[in-house]
């Protein structure tokens, strides 16, 4: 009888241990690359908020929400690169194929880029001085010339071979199907993959007569402590490329309003006080975005999660 009681006690202890382990078992992460494939019933916004808030982040982004509406990439350079500067800068012609080319180089070499427009010429010159740039790579046909003899101007011939000569790495080509796919394609770039993005709908310029000069790679700037960075299919190429070149990950949402789906809401849950960077005017301003996050997270629908 004593043996039976002992066995029963052991079984009870094992059962309680298993039960406690089940109660305290770590839930599967919500905010992962597979988020948009999840059923809404499987998206817990409170858990997503905990994941978002517990991420390690650089001190200058803590408690901050930034909305960057600028289409040329200037604001993203100021936010990510200006504190420490950059030896090099890429300036791209404002065409889809050229911007894809520039973004491919920017992410691979961790160098910031600007999409050029005559309306921002003076701002570009000022940005060059603030960054301490001594080397510019022109991608495309651009009416840009240096006013300083200390500034080296490089020209991209637009060929795959030139990419290898500029970076000392062999690139593989990836065709982007439509303009709508551009932001996601750039967000998916990794500096170690050396991928050249090409537009299926628009040919790239070729300038075989240009001499090719190297554009050295720079170090990752985010220290692995990036804020949450979000964009949409309407976000600018340069802004996404600069966030990636800096070292951050960019989440592409279908729309600029997080309340439009539970998956979008999960990306920003708990981040009404940051750390969050939103790329594009489609997010409104900082006040509008933070209000949408608070409203969406605290709505009756989200409370049921």
From TrEMBL:
Organism domain of life: Bacteria
PROSITE patterns: PROKAR_LIPOPROTEIN
Keyword annotations from UniProtKB, A to Z: Signal
Signal peptide: 1-27
Protein name: Uncharacterized protein
Organism in which the protein naturally occurs: Corynebacterium ammoniagenes DSM 20306
Lineage, top ranks: Bacteria, Bacillati, Actinomycetota, Actinomycetes, Mycobacteriales
């Amino acid at each position: 009888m004593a043996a039976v009681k002992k066995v029963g006690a052991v079984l009870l202890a094992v059962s309680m241990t298993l039960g406690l382990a089940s109660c305290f078992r770590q839930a599967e992460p919500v905010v992962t690359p597979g988020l948009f494939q999840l059923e809404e019933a499987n998206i817990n916004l409170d858990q997503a908020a905990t994941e978002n808030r517990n991420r390690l982040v650089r001190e200058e982004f803590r408690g901050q929400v930034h909305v960057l509406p600028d289409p040329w990439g200037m604001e993203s350079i100021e936010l990510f690169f200006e504190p420490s500067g950059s030896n090099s800068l890429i300036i791209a012609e404002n065409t889809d194929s050229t911007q894809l080319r520039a973004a491919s180089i920017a992410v691979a070499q961790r160098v910031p880029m600007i999409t050029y427009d005559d309306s921002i010429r003076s701002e570009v010159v000022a940005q060059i001085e603030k960054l301490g740039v001594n080397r510019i790579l022109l991608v495309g046909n651009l009416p840009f010339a240096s006013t300083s003899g200390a500034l080296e101007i490089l020209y991209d011939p637009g060929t795959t071979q030139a990419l290898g000569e500029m970076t000392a790495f062999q690139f593989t080509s990836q065709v982007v199907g439509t303009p709508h796919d551009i932001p996601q394609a750039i967000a998916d770039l990794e500096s170690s993959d050396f991928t050249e993005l090409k537009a299926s709908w628009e040919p790239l310029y070729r300038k075989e007569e240009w001499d090719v000069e190297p554009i050295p790679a720079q170090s990752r700037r985010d220290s692995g402590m990036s804020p949450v960075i979000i964009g949409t299919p309407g976000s600018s190429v340069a802004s996404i490329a600069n966030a990636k070149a800096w070292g951050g990950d960019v989440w592409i949402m279908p729309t600029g309003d997080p309340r439009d789906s539970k998956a979008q809401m999960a990306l920003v849950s708990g981040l009404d006080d940051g750390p969050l960077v939103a790329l594009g005017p489609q997010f409104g301003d900082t006040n509008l975005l933070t209000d949408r996050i608070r409203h969406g997270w605290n709505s009756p629908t989200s409370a049921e999660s």
